[in-house]
Amino acid sequence: MRRLMSSAAVAVMLFAAGSVSAAPAAKAAAAKAKPVASAAAAGTPGATFASVTSQLPRNVRPSHYDLAFTPDLDKLTFTAQVKIAIEVVEPTATVTLQAADLTFDKVSIAGVGQAKVKVDADAQTASFTFDKPLAKGKYVLAIDYAGKIYKQAAGLFALDYETEAGKKRAIYTQFENSDARRFIPSWDEPFYKATYSVEATIPTGQMALNNMPIASSKDLGNGKTVVKFATSPKMSTYLLFFGLGDFDRASVKAGGADVGVVTKKGDIPKAQFALKSAAEILPWYNDYFGTPYPLPVLDNIAAPGRSQFFSAMENWGAIFYFEYALLLDPKISTETDKQNVFTTVAHEMAHQWFGDLVTMAWWDDLWLNEGFASWMEGRATEHFHPEWNGALEAVGGREAAMSVDSLATTHPVVQHVATVEQASQAFDTITYQKGEAVIRMLESYVGHDAWRDGVRAYMKKHNHGNTVSDDLWSAVEASAKKPIKAIAHDFTLQPGVPLITVTGETCAAGKTTLTFTQGEFSRDHQDKKPLAWRVPVTVKALGGGEAKTLVVGGKGSVTVAGCGPVVVNAGQAGYFRTQYGPERFGKIAANFAKLPAIDQLGLMTDSWAMGLAGYQPATDFLDISKMVPADADPLVLSRMAGTFLGIDGYYEGQPAERAAFRKFAIARLRPLLAKVGWTAKPGEADNIAILRNDLIGVLGGLGDPDVVAEATRRFNASKTDPSALPGPLRRTITSVVAKHADAATWDAIRAQAQAEKTPLIRNQLYSLLASAEDETLAQKALDLALTPEPGETLSSSMISGVARNHPDMTFDWAVAHKDAVNEKVDSSSRTRFIPGLGASSSNPAMADKIKAYAAANLAEGSRKEAEKAAAGVLNRAKIRQQRLPAITAWVAKNG
Question: Is 348 an annotated catalytic residue?
Fold first, then answer.
């Protein structure tokens, strides 16, 4: 699954804005669940039926589901019959499985009779009790039932969209992590793998989609057709998929499979880049993993709409994407969009192995899916598009993880999950970005070839099975012939960020020797005893050599050829912060222009994070910003610009100080925009296009009068001259205009949205209405979000968009309209959505409000995301009080 944060750099800047998470029947389900201790939680290998966490009795397990169903798209309901091949492993009169929002007509076993049905809505289970116990053996459990088609992305859900011919409706499924039970009564846990045969009665002329190709189709007359799909391989419930609508499909043969894209009618041209990318990636993955993709079809399916929880989902053979994550429209798409399409496709395709073929035994080890898919998307990007310099994006992902991981509210990569809500909340920055960063570090430590050989061995041994983290560590350790398990445990079984401090430096005979101590980097609990890690460290001397060491027991040393300034964490593969001390830091900073781009980025991000946390002056970053050359890598320049915008946010409510800082930042950035210009140049590097958008957006956000005036001129001119808003700049220019909009301009953007028939463009315009700085217009956007006008799945994005500029107002409004707001939010996101709205506030009182909301509305075990949001607010308040005065003084002296 791809979370909404498709760009690591954006993730860092928008960390405080909040985002995704959990599921419905929350409080009682959390209270009643009694899972056993998990092998994964202990980090031990060997996932077995007896050892893996389950919220169900262990006396029955399924092997095959034979499902036939009929959706009613008008009534938003469906009826179904499922025959489940089960094995009773301990005699029992009651079969209990998971079910949510389902009603049962008849439940029976041939030769045994009908069962009495008892539904526990809070626990999301259904129990079927027979007149006498079932003996050990195999049976077929037959169930006639009915269910709902939802308006948000959970279970079987509908998406409505505008076309030139009028409104259309399509339906899709979204089951991860625990929503298959809303469509099929099942053992809805990842360890219970089974095969599936699906039959659907559908409107004639529409296209039906499943994990497998259609095996047969029969016209029933009266506008109905029954389609039967081929039987799937063994898989977990959350990977099952169904889609239905007025679709087009295009495909190519690649990697032994029929690789396709599916869109609503007329949109196939917008999916060509995704199709080309998927066709390139599949054979490369076949080789990398050493196990060929096992299904006959691999479809990439685009759907209009949005979710607060995810942008794409790795259903085996039928990957689901919201359109903005798969399609490219020349009217609005940017270079960032193009790169995000590639990385999202690469991420979801990696899941076809990590997650689908080999599945974590329980949600404790979710990172085995998500961390690896995030890492693999980076590997694919570096292989196919080295010009994008994807390794620098990986630094952004690591920064996002460290930002969260340095607060007391963090958690280990491998964490015990006991409830549905906790499973949903596990899809977070630690699971994705820290997981990816740890993998990059370990891969660098053992070597690329040894790491790949270990992954191949892991896939070969565990295909079609379930694993825990130590299964992977054992495979890599055996292939690399180098111990890594203890290092891996240090970074995955405990939380936090190591801090490597350079305590000594001597140069003799043309070589430099550094000594280190290991502590813990923290933003809010620096007085506690630091945890201990075994930390792989790479150093490089400017003009000299490179060397590696392992810091163990809190101390270490390394000797490297050369006597120039030495960069610690050279290449930025390590997951730690570096503290040089003022003199050493000054020497490296003075040579900033000579550093490789990735180490320039590492020095910038480390100095800023360390400065905000008080380990070194917060103004060190500003000193570095004056040394960044105009011809630096575009991603380095974008990071500098984004950090300026982040600093500006801390000055909310301090107009004089903000004006002084903006004067400095605008003066620093304007020459960069003048160099790249507003118009793309023939043959320019792809990342220059990203830099252009970033500079316009940041300067517009800083209120640069020239940029705001030019954006407004172009926006107004586009009414008669479409070329005034070229596709790659349309969103950025309109966002600047929307941010500074008056009432007339806001109404004009809304009128464009109302008239627009292309969902990609329409959704973008409505989202931009939420970015107004004017409080009255922001309130209008909130009120509009609760109406049907924007569309059921877009409302929550508008609400969270308003919260970025107006967190206190939005949070209070959302609490006052709690029920109406939750109706616009995925069930998987409800435990974190409203708390996240206040997360970008700098008012300490907001932390208390978030905690009070959580105490009143969330089960005790489901408050993790609210606690993170509150901690972020307090940290922002501390930065304003303790760090901002020094920045203000620096600006007065240097600006």
Answer: yes
